[in-house]
Amino acid sequence: MKLKTHICLISDQPLPNLIPALDPGLRPSRVIQVVSRAMQQRADDMAVVLKVRGVHVEQWPIADPWDVEHAKTRLLQLLEREKAQIPDKQIGLNVTGGAKPMSIGAYEACRAYELPIFYVHPEKDRLVWIYSPGGSEIPPVELADRIRIEPFLQAHGVEVRNQPGRNVVNPSLLQTGEEIIRCIDTYHRQLGTLNYLASKAEKTLSTPLEQGQRRKASDLIELFQSHDLLEDTEADLRFSNEDARFFANGGWLEYTVFDAVRQLRKQDQHIQDVARGVRVSRRQENKSIPNELDVVFLRNNRLHIIECKTRQFRGEGEDAPGAEALYKLDTLADLMGGLQARAMLVSFRDISGYDRARAADLGISICSGQQLQNLKSHLRQFIDAR
To answer: Which of 7, 170, 225, 383 lies 20 to 30 Å from 258 when distance is taken between CA atoms?
Structure first.
């Protein structure tokens, strides 16, 4: 059943309202947002996404979303205004969002007018018809996985500030990353030295190279040279371009994880979008807070965030770097993806038992150290986790 108008109850979780409104088989020409003052910003964020895609958006204010009778009265007033659509049943209620009293009042109002009412299952990505005119049974609708990362984040109040990477132009980078992981024992101690040298070359793509540094990173320097990513002169180390320098500065893990997800996407049609190096900003108390997401992908309209780390997490406890990284990742997933978002930490170095236990408590997946040699298997487990 395709309706001309969706009535949406706005809450902290925008996707149950947004996804049906963008589904090619369900997309309405108009959305009416029933919105309280507390949810005004969330409604505005959602409206921007819909308007860009040709859906007309109106807002219908509600003073108290926790009062059933008030919510019912406001919905009856809205339906009286919209009575021209009622005989043809071209207006319906998405009852998924809103506070529970608000959704109950809205349900009762629309049920009184015998209008279609539907609900979006939060885990199965499926639209279920709760009531259809005349009592006819309508089968559930599997929602299309069409939304991309930028509008998904925008609907959650997060602005993407760059053009995220969706390709790796230089295949030598991927070949080098695969070799690093394949010979992880050989390169384990050398990566820190090369990372340091790459950071020193940020502005000029070159940095002085001492004999001691050359000895410490000799195998890695040779590997990078074999792929034309850098040149070792007598006096300095010169990177071929900024991509090569970033890659040596720890970006190799981001590139490798990104490509592994891209490869999985070829086998999994439910992975709808993949990006790396996504620079974002989010609102917090009238301030703009910047962040960078290493690898991000959407599967079945759920956000998956992967943080890639090559640093050593020293120490244990609530204030240790490992715990801080996990808390930050958990917060970002919740703020940017809502209740269904998932997060993963991929670390070149082993993660301590304490941090693994903390990650388990937070529902964050871990892949570190020798586990990187089975990266795709760990990514598959991350994707399939419930």
So the answer is: 225
What 3-state DSSP class applies to 230?
strand
Residue 136's pLDDT band (boundaries 50, 70, 90)? confident
Which backbone phi and psi does 184 adopt, to 5 degrees?
A: -60, -35
Per-domain boundaries in the chain = 5-144, 171-248, 253-384
Paired residues of 305 in beta bridges? 296, 343
For 337-381, the pLDDT digits (tens) are: 988 899 999 998 888 888 899 999 999 999 998 999 999 999 999
Please tell me the pTM assigned to this model: 0.89
Q: Is 236 left (phi over 0), alpha (psi -120 to 50) or beta?
A: beta
For CA atoms 314, 315, 316, 319, the dihedral sign is: negative
Angle at 268 between CA 262 and CA 274, to 5 degrees: 35
**17: nearest Cα among 135, 156, 139:** 156
Q: What is the pLDDT of residues 267-320, one digit of tens each?
A: 998 999 999 999 999 887 778 889 999 999 999 899 999 999 987 766 565 656
pLDDT surpassing 90 at residue 134? no
Cβ burial, residue 386 (10 Å; 0-12/13-18/19+): exposed
Q: Domain 5-144, CATH 3.40.50.10770 — does that match? A: yes
Average pLDDT over residues 75-99: 93
CB-facing half-sphere around the CA of 368: CA atoms within 13 A: 21
| φ and ψ at residue 234, rounded to 5 degrees | -65, -30
Quick one: pLDDT band at residue 386, thresholds 50, 70, 90?
Answer: low
Domain 253-384: top CATH class? alpha beta
Residue type (1 letter), 358 = R
Residues 64-87 have a mean pLDDT of 94
Query: To which CATH superfamily is domain 171-248 assigned?
Result: Hypothetical protein VC1899 (Restriction endonuclease-like) (1.10.10.680)
Separation CA 230–CA 212 (nearest Å):
18
